[in-house]
Every structure is written in C-alpha cells, then in structure tokens.
Specification:
six-stranded antiparallel sheet; alpha+beta; 194 residues
C-alpha cells in the first residue's frame, strides 16, 4: 500500500511538472488528452487510480514516455530492473498483464515492456502520437496482433513492428499464455522555444 501511494505521488509530481513545462492549463491538457479536468486535478493531487489508457493519453499529449511519468530521478550509469519489483500497469480479467520495465533516456526514448497474454484475452490500444513505432517479440506462446483491423498471427521466435499511430490490439491465442517483450520507440520530445 505504501509503495502504491509513493508511486502515485511520483506520477502526480511528474504530470504536473510536465504539464507546467508544456505551458498547458488543466482544461487544455484535459481537452488534448481526452481526460476530464476533474480526473487531472485528482491525479495531480495524488488521488484516484489512473489506468494505463489514461496514462498513455497524458504521456502522448505531453510528448513524453509513460515511464517518465512514473519514475523518480535516475541513479548511476546502469539501471537493473527486476520484473517482480514493477507493478503491472494493466491486468486482464483472466490473468494477463503488462509491466513497463524501463524507458531509456535521451532525445528519442524507448520504453521496454513485458507482457503476458492469456489465451483469447486482449488489450485494445488507442492510436499513439505520430512517430511512435512498436516492436513485439514473442518469447513463448502465440498471439494475434491486430493493426488497423488486420490480424497478424505471431508465434514464439517471431518479431513484428508497426507504426503505433493507428488502432491496435494485442490478443493471446492458442492454449498457453503468450509472453512477449515490447519496445515502444518514441519520437523526439518537444523542443523548448525561447
């Protein structure tokens, strides 16, 4: 419980700081991210429980990564993250889950995710900002990647990549869970203007 409260305080601080840096009011941020002003106020006060879709919309609107909203300051040159220390950002009703392991730093960050999809369970994702590219590598099991309504079956050992600025869905298939590693390549963030 204390870890959840601490994580929510970190998200609250990072959302507010990024919104202020971007020069956005709560109203404008809410309009662009399609999140109610009340939900943003609660989030910036470290109240509520934002879901993954909300965090993705906020991050996309701010031109930053989801993990930039969730992580405190970096320490040291090497970061090692254990999956058991990262809470899932999404859990499905049948046991599927998605964990954002880390995001690389630099002008064009890359998010590294670990997913487990149970058979027939799916996660529909809204389109991301232009320039986002996703890569999925299936480590075990089988899945269906749906991009723009077209289904693409993927099995263990296969990797797919696609532009994330269109509707897409990840669905487990077969009889066993599907484990996959996803990278989300983000475009360079907005540059400061004088």
């Amino acid at each position: 419980m204390a870890e959840t409260a601490s994580a929510l305080r970190t998200v609250a601080h990072n959302v507010r700081a990024a919104r202020v840096r971007a020069g956005l009011s709560l109203e404008e941020m809410g309009r662009r991210a399609q999140v109610s002003k009340g939900a943003l106020v609660a989030l910036e006060k470290a109240q509520g429980n934002p879901n993954l879709a909300t965090l993705v919309r906020i991050a996309d609107t701010l031109g930053i990564s989801v993990s930039a909203l969730m992580q405190g300051p970096h320490e040291g040159r090497v970061r090692i993250v254990d999956a058991s220390s990262v809470a899932p950002l999404w859990t499905g009703g049948q046991g599927s889950e998605a964990r954002l392991m880390l995001t690389t730093s630099g002008p064009s960050p890359v998010e590294v995710w670990r997913w487990r999809l149970e058979p027939e369970e799916e996660y529909p994702s809204h389109p991301h900002q232009a320039g986002v590219v996703e890569t999925i590598s299936v480590v075990s099991g089988r899945m269906i990647l749906v991009v723009d309504g077209s289904e693409h079956p993927l099995a263990v050992g296969q990797t797919a990549t696609f532009d994330g600025d269109t509707a897409h869905t990840y669905r487990g298939s077969g009889t066993e869970p599907c484990d996959l590693i996803m990278t989300v390549h983000l475009p360079p963030g907005p540059t400061a203007t004088a």
